[in-house]
Amino acid sequence: MLAIAIPVVLVVVGLIIGLTMARRRHAVAPVAPSVMVETPPPPAPAEAPAQETPEQPASRMVRLRRRLSSSNNGLAKALAGLLSADKLDAATWESFETTLLAADLGVGPTTELVDSLRAKLGVEGTSDPGVARQALHDDLLALVDPALDRTLNLEHEPALPAVVMMVGVNGTGKTTTVGKLGRLLIAEGKTVLFGAADTFRAAAAEQLITWGSRVGVETVSGAEGADPASVAFQAVDRGISDGVDVVLVDTAGRLHTKVGLMDELGKVKRVIEKKAPVTEVLLVIDATTGQNGLAQARVFAEVVDVTGLVLTKLDGSAKGGIVVAVQRELGVPVKLVGLGEGVDDLAPFDPEQFVQGLLGE
Ligand code: GDP
């Protein structure tokens, strides 16, 4: 009897141990998912100082104003030169025009500004600096166009998040802008999720995950080489189930062929829209790349319906005129400007503050 009972007990115990181990193995090693969600670690004040209270949007633009007026900005210099000229002869106007073009204002806006100022000041001269300053202020503001609607469209149905796609050439600052914008939105009390749909470089997803942990936002990412549209879809899907307000989707900016780019970005947008409408497509442009950057931006604007522009690296650009040039070229308002590499170095663009900065007011 005992001879039978002992092996039976041993087999039963063996089965129980085997089953428990198998269950454990399953718990610690799930099937590798194609899409991963990185949850930021809980904020630890000593290690994550970036998660302190974000700077208010209004004072961010004031910082830009200060930077513009104290910088060696070509446009600011041209304006100051005109204001301090003894007489407005042909040579003065010519040199003014040349400097405006060098500051990337663009041919059309430069001609408009010079013609208008010549009409206003040519007769009166600059004997009254106040009149000249006011004329410059008004004309510049008109060029930057304060009437354009620069608010981000983040309207969404209660059950769906607003979706913002960030597009643009690699290196312009897309990922950085997604990170900073996440923080700006959190400062406004919104809940945010990042989608790392730039799957062509492993580093891009890593970079976004790092930004996510800096600003306290989760990131949905895929394996390197995964289909960008599928990652974007998963991110929006997750955004819906989590009930977040905004999903910010970073995309790849390889300028291969126009058709390839169109297919890729078009597909990402179409696939997202199976879940929720894309409320903003923000085109990121590096302000320091001038006419070349503008030409590249034009290709993006042709392949995807851009609803707003983000002008990055305005802190390092000596050519503030690009603000006017990009809006004119692409027919879309500059909505945000990048002022540096810090977490709070992104500001909603304010034409009045911008012009005041250029005029050193
Ligand atoms: P992406 O390839 O378009 O995603 O570009 P990244 O976000 O990786 O940015 C490229 C580089 O530009 C990084 O070194 C950023 O820190 C830097 N950058 C981005 N925005 C700004 C800005 O507004 N000012 C400055 N000075 N640097 C910026």
- The poorly predicted ranges are 10-33, 43-49
Q: Which strands sit side by side, in order, in the main sheet?
A: 1-4-3-5-2-6-7-8-9
Number of helices: 13
Q: Which ligands appear in the coordinates?
A: guanosine-5'-diphosphate
Give helix and strand order, one letter per element, not per position.
HEHHHHHEHEHEHEHEHEHEEH
Structural class: alpha/beta
Largest sheet: 9 strands, mixed
Mean of residue pLDDT values: 83
Fraction in helix: 40-55%
Q: Span from first to last CA?
A: 102 Å
> What sort of overall outline do the alpha carbons produce when their principal axes are compared?
elongated
Total number of β-strand segments? Answer: 9
What does this structure look like?
By secondary structure, this protein is α/β, with parallel strands linked by helices. The protein is 52% helix and 14% strand. It has helices at 2-28, 57-70, 74-84, 90-102, 107-124, 129-144, 174-187, 202-215, 228-242, 258-272, 290-303, 322-330, 351-358, and strands at residues 35-38, 162-167, 192-197, 218-222, 246-251, 278-286, 308-312, 334-338, 346-348. Strands 1-4-3-5-2-6-7-8-9 form a 9-stranded mixed β-sheet, with helices on both faces. Helix 2 (57-70) packs parallel to helix 13 and helix 11 (290-303) runs parallel beside helix 12. The chain is elongated. The protein starts with a helix and ends with a helix. The model is unreliable at 10-33 and 43-49 (pLDDT under 50). Guanosine-5'-diphosphate binds next to helix 7.
